[in-house]
Amino acid sequence: MGGGLKLLSRLPLASSNCSVSHLSFSFCSVSTQLCESNPEPFSQPFIFNDDKAPYNHEQLHKLRLLLQQGRMESAYRIVKFLVISKSPFPSPCELLSSLSVSCPSLKTTLSNMLLSICCESKLHGEAGDLYGLMRRDGILPGFDSVRMLVESLLETKQFNMILDLFTDIVEMGFRPDKFMYAKVIQAAVKVGDTKRAMELLDSMKSRGVSPNVFVYNVVLGRLCKEKRIKDAEKVFDEMCRRRLWANTVTYNTLIDGYCKLGEVNKAFNLRDRMKNENVEPSVVTFNSLLSGLCKLGRTIEARRLLEEMRENGFLPDGFYSANGQGAMDLYNMASREGVKLNNYTSNILINSLCKEGRVDKAEGLLTTLMENGLVPDEVVFNTLVNGYCRIDDINGAIATIERKESHGLRPNFISFNSLIDKCCGMHKVEEAEVWVRKMVEKGVRPGIETYNILINGYGKLCNFDRCFQILEEMEISGMKPNVVSYGSLINCLCKYEKSLEAEIVLRDMIGRGITPNALIYNMLIDGCCAFGKLEDAFRFFDEMFRMEINPTLVTYNALINGLCRNGRLKEAEDFLPQIKSSGYSPDVITYNSLISGHSNARNAKKCLELYEAMKKSGVQATTKTYHALIRACSKEGITLVQTLFNEMLEKNLAPDRAVYNAMISCYSENGNVEKALSLRDEMLKRGIHPDKTNIIA
User: Fold this and answer.
1) Category of 671 on φ-ψ map: left (φ > 0), alpha (ψ -120 to 50) or beta
2) In 103-212, where does DSSP find H-type helix?
3) DSSP letter at 411?
4) How far apart are CA 386 and CA 348, in angstroms?
5) Lowest-confidence range among 301-305, 437-441, 655-659?
6) Cβ-based neighbour number of residue 213 at 10 Å
7) How far apart are CA 677 and CA 151, in angstroms?
8) Start-end of the PPR repeats (predicted)?
9) What is the DSSP letter of 498?
10) Longest pairwise C-alpha distance within the chain
11) What is the reported pLDDT for 558?
12) Are 99 and 63 within 8 A, CB to CB?
């Protein structure tokens, strides 16, 4: 698209002495105006210099008369022909310019007509340029034309431009309707700007425009994607209070959100509510529930659900499972039911096995599927290549690429990227570069992901000079580094206490027009906190707000951890309300940082209070939690410590060296040497050696 739209968001409105009409183009309701006797030119006319000049002049004259007479349908046909043929006017802007010279009073009518035609004809770039010209000339587009322009931008996925356009028309005094709000909220969600989407929803309600189910579904989808299920619940409750009936999409969105967070019971409760409200489940409903059960290893319930699917006339179109054995069980059951797997489903199943390192099982399954008529596609082979790389079997990955070629499938950048990434992960960056050259020899152009892998690989080896060279090579080859390119470098610099260099990279990144995201700032904040540079950490935190980048739970956890490690416990706890107001809930990392901080301060009471709050909120404790608790409570008596140790064992958490050492020290200090020695023997049997500092009195 041309520059029209990019410049529109803060263009000045027409001056007060300029008469401007709000006209929407339609065939039956356009006010006609006669040409002024002494028109004032507003732009340079288009010069005819070909053999068709008389015909072109005739067409323009005819068009002018039709517009003056209000014969809009006939005028529309001529304008559309002139726009699509691009003869004699290369662009709609030049057509508008030429006609307006002789009859400026028709400028508004023709502008809206042209804008509608451009949008209808999918001339998206021309529509944007025309809108920019209209705004510069003080013409306010009609509401129908703006709606069509929004649709045009949505179709071409120019979501940021939709948001700019919306800001502009609201400042012009337009009152957006339900349709307009729905599309703009959809655009905000597409660019990941949840805050803007929520603000638009609030604006919609405050202006008396009632959101519909579509709008709520769009917002719910974004919140669930960000795992902000509590906020999603609030939006859903509000929707119900407004007496809007949730549909299948609404329920599927929430059910999938719950399942991805492991809250399968809540998902099934929603499914029951669907039944009560006579909302029909779809295959998506069942697949989300099936996925949630498989991830938790609840295979028996998954089998029952599969049977229910069959009874409802659904057959699973995929096994969305990270649990390979559960997926295999379901595959065997589906096979007995006569379900034939397609490539998509087969790949999900093979992928689940590869993720567990069971590549041999995946190969065996592929052989069986091929015997049953499956023709493997490149996705299946790419999955296997990645599977071999996961288990450090480079030769197996190479053999799979060769096998892929023998099936008539060319290797693509995905296959090579898996190999290159594995080489970098094994610190074999020179070998990784060899594979980049082989990639080029095979006619596969390295993508930005390839370069990002190399930057990350060299960064982990502290070879930052090579990282900067790769960034230069990307620029030379015409490939613009993205936020991931800079993020990989910033992350590595932060991990090696090079926060100054990391900030220089950040400033260079911003200077090149690449907007950092929350992940970048999280790296910087975490790096500063890890090395005690809290002042710099909070400087970056403040910068996030200035740049309107919402902090994530990772941001808050990094700051809380940094504060706790420096004994600033009150400040750390002050972040808890802020976490909740941002739509997040404290997780195990949050609680572990706070408990460890109070443990270092020997505040057993506070540690236990946090532990109870942790359990009440449903956050599962880890070995690290119990280590901090045991250490804090060692002076409170052996009974309490033993209770905590037993709770840890009941949760199937294996004690590590730190826990054993803390327990042995506690028993030793309390005079129970026999128990201390018993734990020491148990520790040694498990292959864990005690610290030298752990001396049994």
Assistant:
1) left
2) 107-120, 124-136, 143-155, 159-171, 178-190, 194-206
3) -
4) 13
5) 301-305
6) 16
7) 75
8) 107-141, 177-211, 212-246, 247-281, 282-316, 342-376, 377-411, 412-446, 447-481, 482-516, 517-551, 552-586, 587-621, 656-690
9) -
10) 112
11) 96
12) yes
Q: What share of the chain in percent tops pLDDT 90?
A: 32
What lies within 8 Å, CB to CB, of 186 at 6+ separation is 154, 218
Residue with tokens 């949730």: 246
Tokens 């007995």 map to which residue? 336
Structure tokens at 183: 């599309």
pLDDT at 674 over 50: yes
> What one-character DSSP code corresponds to residue 174?
-
Tokens of 625: 């939690």
Q: How many CB atoms lie within 10 A of CB 396?
A: 18
- The rounded distance, in Å, linking the Cα atoms of 353 and 384 is 10
| Contact (CB, 8 A) for 400 and 430 | no
Instruction: Identify the burial level of 561 via C-beta atoms within 10 angstroms of its C-beta, where 0-12 means exposed, 13-18 middle and 19 or more buried.
Output: buried
How would you class 690 by CB atoms within 10 Å of its CB: exposed for 0-12, middle for 13-18, buried for 19 or more?
middle
* Residue range 408-437, pLDDT digits in tens: 888 788 889 999 999 999 999 999 999 999
User: Considering only CA atoms, which of 175, 180, 184, 234 is closest in space to residue 207?
Assistant: 175
Q: What is the CA radius of gyration of the chain?
A: 32
Tokens at 316, concatenated: 């699973």
Q: How far apart are CA 130 and CA 94, in angstroms?
A: 10
Which pLDDT score, from 0 to 100, does residue 143 have? 73
327-362 residue pLDDT tens: 565 666 556 555 566 666 677 778 878 888 889 888
H or E segment and range at residue 431: helix 429-441
- At which residue do the structure tokens 């990391």 appear? 502
